[in-house]
Amino acid sequence: MYDIQSIRADFPILSREVNGKPLVYLDNGASAQKPQVVIDAISHAYSHEYANVHRGLHTLSTIATENYEAVRGKIAGFLGGVAEEEIIFNTGATHGFNMISYGWAMQNLTAGDEIVLSVMEHHANIVPWHFLRERMGVKLVWVEPEADGSFDPARVVEVLNDRTKLVALTHMSNVLGTVVDIAAVAEILKPRGIPLAVDGSQASVHMPVDLTTLGADFYCITGHKLYGPSASGAVWIKSERMAEMRPFMGGGDMIRTVTRDEITYNDPPHTFEAGTPGIVQMIGLGTAIDYMTNIGMANIAAHEASLRDYAQDKFRALNWLNLQGTAANKGAIFSFTMDGGAHPHDISTIVDQKGVAVRAGHHCCQPLMQHLGVNATCRASFGMYNTVDEVDVLVDALETCHRLLG
Predict the structure, then answer these.
(1) Structural domains in the chain (count)
(2) Which of 39, 160, 177, 178 could form a disulfide with 333 if both were Cys (CB 3.0 to 4.6 A apart)?
(3) Recorded GO terms, molecular function (predicted)?
(4) Hey, which residues does 87 pair with through a beta bridge?
C-alpha cells in the first residue's frame, strides 16, 4: 500500500506555510524536496565521519571512502544492475553531458559530422553540442515531436546518414512530460553503430529505469531531482564507450603517477573523477536512492500516474487553459498558458499567494518554446509526495488567477 501521508511526513518542508497557506510544492521538475533521512545523512556525515576520500589511511578517511564508494553500487543497482565501474560520479546531468562532449565526442567526431537532437531537449543536452558546432564544425540536426507532444522514433530514421555520429535525447521531457521510447530508438541505431546519449534527469525520478535492456550508451542522472542533495549526480557510460574516451579534467585522484615528463591515469571510472569530489553530497544521494528504492519505483510511478490522470481531467475542464503536450505516454508534468494574454510570471506570482509553487519561464528549453510558439509557460510538476487534494488547490488558484487576469 502506498502510504502517502507517511511519505509526506518524511519531508519536513511540506509542513510549512507559504503566504499563510499550506505549501503545495509543484516545482519538482526543477528540484525536489529532501526527506529527513537525507538531511540526517548529510548532517551525520559532516558531524561524525567527514574526511577526504581515497587518499587517507586513517579511520575517518576509511569510513568516508567506504560510504562514498558504496553509492556507486547503489546507483548501479538503481539503474538496473549495470557494472559499478561504468558509473562516474559528478554534479548532475549538465556535468555529465559536458563530460560526454569533451571526453568522448571531441575525440570521435570531426568537422561535418552530425549530432541528432530533439527540440524537447534541456539546455544541458544542447549547449555542450553547440560548443562542438562552434569549435569543431559539427552539425546539429533537429527532430520535432508530434502535434500532441509525443515523440515518434521513426522521425530519427528520417535524418540519419553516414555523417550521423551521435543521437542525444531526453528520456522524459521536463516541459511536456513526454516519455520517449528510448529502447525503440536504440534498436534503430544499433545496426548502424550510432551511439545514443540519454538525459535521464526526469525519467529516473518518476519510473523504473533498466539500462541493461534500454540500449543506450550514455545515461545522465541528477541528484537534486532524485530527492538528494544539490551538486550530486552521475553518468553511466557503457564500458566500450568509456574505452573510447580521454579525461577532460585533470587533477588528483584521476592519476596513478605524475612526473615532470609524463602522467599515467587511474583506472575507470576514477579516470574521469578529478579532484576532491562532493563527498557528502554523494552520500546524501545514496540515502535518497535507498529511500526511493524502499518505497519502490513502480509504486512511485503508479502513484504519479494517478495524479497525472486526475490533473488532466481537471485541467481539461478549464477551457481557458492551454496545455502544452497531451501525449498518452507522459509523466505528471504539465506546462500551460492561459487565454487572455496573462504572462506565466504573473500566473506563478498569483498562485504563489495560495501557497502553490509552480515554475514559470522557458524551463531551459528555448528551442522547444520556439517550436510551441510561446515565449514561456507555467509548469506544474508532481512528485512522490503530492496528492489529489493539491491538484484541487492548484485548480482553485488557477481559477482565481483567471478571474483576475483572464
Answers:
(1) 2
(2) 177
(3) cysteine desulfurase activity; lyase activity; pyridoxal phosphate binding
(4) 236
